[in-house]
Amino acid sequence: MLCALIQNNTVVAVEDLTDAQIQAIGNQYQNILDVSGYNPAPSVGAQFDGVSAIIGGTANMKITKLSFSERFTLAEAVAIQNAAATNLTLQVLQQRQALATYIDLGRSDTQSGVEYLVSLGLLTQDRATAILTTPPTAQELYQG
């Protein structure tokens, strides 16, 4: 996998590494971040935010469907499910999500769908913004 080797919150190298190689050199770096999904890949000198993203490159906003679902609180998810029982638009949005391979938080249709939840009063604008703009963790990223 393509990995950014990070020291002092700066990418010092970008290398294709196996899991065994990562294990062998892991203690030599502040962090080793899988950047396989980044487009473009970060370059040496890019800054690391200390959690999961490289600043100065375009973060991969493609996450798994489970990760997208988990961005909603249980109360939000229940409210959405209850509303979908009588709202055909919500039913279609849920069908599209079920058919998707992954969820791209940067796509306009994803953003419109979440904004539709705000218009129905099922989410606040602050929650919608957090769901759509929080950089994915390594665990959330779609690996495909």
- So how many helices? 6
Q: Give me the Rg, rounded.
A: 18 Å
Q: What structural class is derived from the secondary structure elements?
A: alpha+beta
Instruction: Give a quick account of the main beta sheet: strands, pairing sense, barrel closure.
Output: 3 strands, antiparallel
Enumerate the spans where pLDDT stays under 50 for 5 or more consecutive residues: none
Mean pLDDT: 88
Q: What is the domain tally?
A: 2
Strand content: 15-25%
Q: Can you count the beta strands?
A: 7
Order of helices and strands: EEHEEEEHHHEHH
Question: How would you sum up the global shape?
Answer: elongated
Helix fraction, binned, reads 25-40%
Biggest sheet strand order reads 2-1-3
C-alpha termini separation:
12 Å
List keywords for this structure.
single chain; three-stranded antiparallel beta sheet; alpha+beta; two-stranded antiparallel sheet; 144 residues; 7 strands
What does the model show?
The protein has 144 residues and is α+β, with helices and mostly antiparallel strands. It folds into 2 domains: 2-55, no CATH class; 62-133, no CATH class. The chain contains 6 helices and 7 strands, in the order E-E-H-E-E-E-E-H-H-H-E-H-H. The protein has helices spanning 19-25, 65-70, 74-84, 88-99, 108-119, 125-133, and strands at residues 2-7, 10-16, 31-34, 47-48, 54-55, 62-63, 103-104. The strands form 3 sheets. It has a 3-stranded antiparallel sheet, with no helix packed on it. The longest helix is centred in the middle third of the chain and has 12 residues, at 88-99. It is elongated. The chain starts with a strand and ends in an 11-residue tail after the last helix. The model has no long low-confidence stretch (mean pLDDT 88).
